[in-house]
Write a structure and sequence with these properties.
Elements lengths: L2 E19 L5 E21 L3 E6 L11 H12 L5 E7 L10 H16 L6 H9 L5 H6 L2 E5 L4 E4 L7 E6 L6 H6 L12 H10 L2 H7 L1 E2 L2 H7 L2 H11 L4 E4 L6 E5 L2 H13 L5 E5 L8
Parallel strand pairs: 1-8, 3-4
Antiparallel strand pairs: 1-2, 2-4, 2-5, 5-6, 7-10, 7-11, 9-10
Helix pairs in contact: 1-2, 2-3, 6-7
């Protein structure tokens, strides 16, 4: 095998809580994470010219060590030297700087793909340990599906799949810095914390209405204050039939859960008509199965 093609899935947060801050500055989190069927396409090829070469369909993305796919490839190539080189074509569709873990998922895809392509025989757990060195979301993006993420996001516990529903995912025309959001999060001022345990219990029961009703993201206390359009999108989704709508990650992307596809489509077109979102999707949850 000289090449492999992969899909790198976006993620949303059904619940996101921040429980404290470590001495090294990282925040401690409890999150219920969910892969969704919005994906980047990755092609990895073994080539004769040594080294790592990356190309992408978005001209503003770096193709050097500042790109997480390059970092992922370099991490494995340094540990397992190869006389050949690696070429990676990254076709981006997941919105960038959006709270959807696009870069982390791309890195996870490269780790998974190179493990297969180079016959490294690393287990999923071994790949997740290496992924943690690249970013806190990478271990989940290797595992995929529905999971509880703890620690700084690297401790992953698989959960039952999200029941059948329809998701409208909307990213407004702004980018949000994750670093900015966490630096401005005032833990002492947070009065209401998401019911993460309640979401887990509702997942075990397979009750989509209960799950949606408990969805909450503590980072909205920062991001929505600075970008009110996030609240506008949430409100419109709920007005148009979403069981609930919240921000994903540090934002600015908002997603809503709908029980009926036609209701989701009406919300989608309303958001489109009002130009509230620059990038807009109707999708479903990714069921936990391997690539």
């Amino acid at each position: 095998m000289k090449q492999i093609k992969l899909k790198a899935m976006a993620k949303i947060n059904l619940g996101l809580d921040v429980t404290g801050k470590r001495e090294d500055g990282y925040h401690k989190v409890r999150m219920v994470m969910q892969s969704v069927n919005i994906f980047d396409r990755i092609t990895i090829k073994i080539v004769k010219t040594p080294g790592i070469r990356v190309s992408t369909n978005l001209p503003y993305l770096p193709v050097n060590e500042n790109n997480l796919v390059y970092k992922a490839a370099n991490l494995l190539m340094e540990e397992f030297p190869c006389e050949n080189g690696i070429y990676i074509m990254l076709e981006k569709h997941i919105p960038v700087a959006a709270g959807l873990a696009g870069g982390s998922s791309d890195a996870a895809g490269v780790l998974y793909g190179l493990n297969k392509l180079l016959k490294l025989r690393l287990t999923e757990e071994e790949l997740m340990l290496r992924g943690e060195k690249i970013g806190a979301d990478v271990p989940f993006c290797i595992k995929r599906g529905t999971a509880l993420a703890e620690g700084i996001g690297e401790k992953i516990t698989p959960l039952p799949n999200l029941p059948k529903c329809y998701l409208v995912v909307a990213k407004p025309g702004i980018n949000v810095s994750t670093k900015f959001v966490y630096e401005n999060l005032k833990l002492e001022n947070i009065e209401n914390h998401p019911d993460i345990d309640g979401i887990i219990e509702s997942l075990k029961k397979g009750n989509i209405t209960e799950i949606a009703g408990r969805m909450e993201n503590v980072l909205e206390t920062v991001t929505v204050k600075h970008y009110p359009i996030i609240e506008d999108i949430k409100n419109l989704m709920k007005e148009k039939g979403a069981v609930n709508a919240i921000m994903s990650g540090s934002g600015p992307t908002v997603f809503g859960i709908f029980l009926q596809e036609n209701t989701a489509k009406k919300a989608y077109y309303q958001l489109k008509d009002q130009y509230l979102a620059k990038q807009l999707f109707i999708t479903e949850a990714f069921q936990n199965k391997r690539r």
